[in-house]
């Protein structure tokens, strides 16, 4: 099958074909371009990426170990479905890891970075108004990752990205399928806490940011489906 979107990602310098295939597939899952339950095949993915099946197999192998793609046998693949228990586990892991990462990054925060994050949040507001969900997802991840990466000793970003990867397809489905969803934005609370260098307020605003909006709607969707 080839009727699914795989957003373009320019290859980094020195990146192999195999690495680029993995990066594009991983990004497609993380931003929710592939919905839960989407059926995939090695041949379909190879056609979508314009590649031979060989680099696709390695990319899928890596993504299956990250719980981003299920290998079902008989060369069939699928984006995993979400369950209520798994959803709650992933959400709470996000809270634990990201509040930790934000607190550890705070001592390295500068006014220049706060201004950069403020400008990014303004662009996110415009994306919400325009219902540009691809841009909104990318910028939201950039906002959080920029903060966490300030800690020169950070070891949490790969773990956080793993959670984003597993939540991405379902979170995007929630945003798309619930037209009346209220986009709750706690980034401005986070920015105010950053300016005050208030770690407790930053962690509280971040936890609210994670739990509100699409998380609440996701719980409602899963409850209705059950």
From TrEMBL:
Residues 15-82 form the HTH gntR-type domain. This is GntR family transcriptional regulator. It comes from the Bacteria. GO terms for molecular function: DNA binding; DNA-binding transcription factor activity. PROSITE patterns: HTH_GNTR. Keywords: DNA-binding, Transcription, Transcription regulation. Pfam families: FCD, GntR. Coiled coil: none annotated. It comes from Paenirhodobacter ferrireducens.
């Amino acid at each position: 099958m080839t009727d699914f979107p795989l957003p373009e990602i320019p290859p980094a310098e020195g990146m192999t074909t195999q690495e680029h295939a993995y990066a594009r597939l991983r990004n497609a899952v993380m931003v929710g371009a592939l919905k839960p339950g989407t059926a995939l095949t090695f041949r379909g993915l190879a056609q979508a990426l314009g590649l031979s099946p060989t680099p696709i197999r390695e990319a899928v192998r890596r993504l299956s170990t990250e719980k981003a793609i299920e290998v079902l046998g008989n060369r069939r693949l699928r984006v995993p479905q979400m369950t209520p228990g798994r959803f709650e586990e992933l959400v709470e892991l996000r809270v634990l890891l990201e509040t930790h990462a934000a607190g550890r990054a705070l001592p390295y925060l500068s006014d220049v970075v706060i201004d950069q994050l403020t400008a990014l949040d303004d662009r996110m507001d415009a994306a919400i108004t325009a219902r540009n969900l691809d841009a909104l997802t990318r910028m939201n991840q950039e906002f959080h990752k920029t903060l966490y990466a300030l800690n020169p000793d950070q070891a949490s970003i790969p773990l956080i990205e793993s959670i984003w990867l597993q939540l991405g397809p379902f979170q995007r489905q929630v945003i798309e399928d619930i037209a009346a969803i209220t986009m709750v934005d706690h980034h401005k609370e986070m920015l105010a806490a950053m300016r005050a260098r208030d770690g407790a307020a930053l962690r509280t605003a971040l936890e609210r940011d994670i739990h509100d909006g699409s998380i609440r709607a996701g719980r409602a969707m899963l409850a209705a489906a059950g």
